[in-house]
Design a protein that fits this description.
The structure is a homodimer. Chain A is of the alpha+beta class and about 250 residues long. Chain A folds into two domains: about 160 residues, CofE-like (60s Ribosomal Protein L30, Chain: A, 2-Layer Sandwich), CATH 3.30.1330; about 70 residues, CofE-like fold (Alpha-Beta Complex), CATH 3.90.1660. Helices cover about 25% and strands about 25% of the residues of chain A. In chain A, the strands form four sheets. In chain A, strands 1-12-2-8-9 form a five-stranded mixed beta sheet, with helices on both faces. In chain A, strand 5 and strand 6 form a beta hairpin. The longest helix of chain A is centred in the middle third of the chain and has 16 residues.
């Protein structure tokens, strides 16, 4: 029992500052050797910046709900207005600690609808999540295929807080060319009994693995994961949308 | 921008069947080259088995709460009795889908208190979580140090379901020699602004990364992660207990 087999997880160092219109797919295709079975994991912030998903808070006019919520949570009402415009529901608030957890239009449940000021391009502006992260992943994948001929899977991720456990972990918010869930139901365990209720969040685990090699104070958003070709598919597949638990089956809303 | 730097994640193949009393630390020290900066991630099931945390359901006498809950959830009342004995609170039940989510005596919130029949040693028996997974991790680490002289970090993990998202992901339930949380609060982003509320669940992300190279139908519980020495510490550190969100700050109970 001495054989080790596994994966490598490597961050690209020194991506230049990304501004609206930056061709991320072309830059990554140029910088990284990417094969068909690789997974390219990219943190959301640079994807959003390249797509121009930036709002200058100076130009935001907060409505009454944002003013009320901002006052109660001790948050800038302009920021709250942007968060609400990116959300379809407010899930929880905590005035004592200034927490605003919403469900985004995509269906993600996270703090501030993923709207974030850190690493934003200028003081007073905030970065939104991509409008359609699965589409963003497909577009980057297509660009790499067009320029290089290889079709690695692409995962776009963000760090979300969680119920019950401290510490944010990176999760997948978009993907292309990857099976985001690996369904073991019906397969057998080592003694031949059927495994029950075991569906593995592959895309989320890839996002978390990729985050381990990033440095949030430097520019290392792009990570290549090599050795997971069994989860990579030639077509773009279902994306991450199907990873969301249907609200009717969710016991924690 | 072409330099790649990162980690390797490798599973040990072919660990023998683990039975109560099996010296897991010695077996892993013997099988894997482990250096001071490495992290050894081990899935909970083999740790529990080695520690004899196995219950034969035949010998369990369900109490009235277990009989009531078992009937309502269409679950074996003997299994429910074991789950309740491993729990300090029932958090959610769902009769339609037979779901029982509890808070374990350790403070973990998960389905069935982590009690699991898959990969158990014999039909009719179930495997419990280790009584003190941080202690289990410390003991395995100490054994490796005694036999090999190196002090890799040790993470013990299990796969838990989550609120809002489909797919289980592997999380850390015990660790030794690792900083389980990496606190970025107070550090600056790339343009010099202070990062807010960013604490990263390093131990959980390591657990997830390790799970990507496992095969649940074969015996690959032990995974070496190499390249994260910045999170490995000479002393055993705080363990995973401090990773639990204090109930008073938890908005999703």
């Amino acid at each position: 029992m001495s054989e080790l087999a596994g994966i490598s997880v490597e961050a690209l160092r020194g991506l230049p500052e990304v501004t609206p219109g930056f061709d991320l797919g072309a830059a990554l295709a140029d910088a990284i050797d990417l094969s068909d079975g690789d997974v390219l994991a990219i943190s959301q912030k640079v994807v959003s910046k390249a797509e121009g998903r930036i709002v200058d808070l100076d130009g935001v006019e907060p409505g009454s709900e944002a003013i009320e919520l901002g006052t109660r949570l001790d948050k800038d009402p302009k920021l709250v207005e942007v968060v609400l415009s990116e959300s379809r529901a407010v899930i929880r608030t905590d005035a004592e600690r200034g927490i605003l957890i919403t469900e985004t239009h995509h269906g993600f449940i996270c703090a501030n609808a993923g709207v974030d000021a850190s690493n934003a391009p200028a003081d007073g502006s905030v970065v939104l999540l991509p409008a359609d992260p699965d589409r963003s992943a497909r577009e980057i994948r297509a660009k790499i295929a067009a320029l290089k001929g290889s079709r690695p899977a692409v995962v776009i991720s963000d760090s979300f807080g969680r119920a019950w456990r401290l510490g944010q972990v990176e999760v997948a918010i978009g993907c292309a060319g990857l099976d985001p869930l690996d369904d073991w139901r019906g397969r057998k365990d080592t003694v031949g009994r059927e495994l029950t209720a075991t569906t593995i969040g592959i895309a989320d685990q890839i996002a978390s693995a990729a985050d381990l090699v990033r440095d949030k104070t430097s520019r290392t958003p792009a990570v290549r994961v090599r050795g997971l070709s069994r989860f990579v598919r030639p077509d773009d597949g279902p994306g991450c949308g199907g990873q969301l638990r249907p609200p009717g089956e969710d016991l924690f809303r």
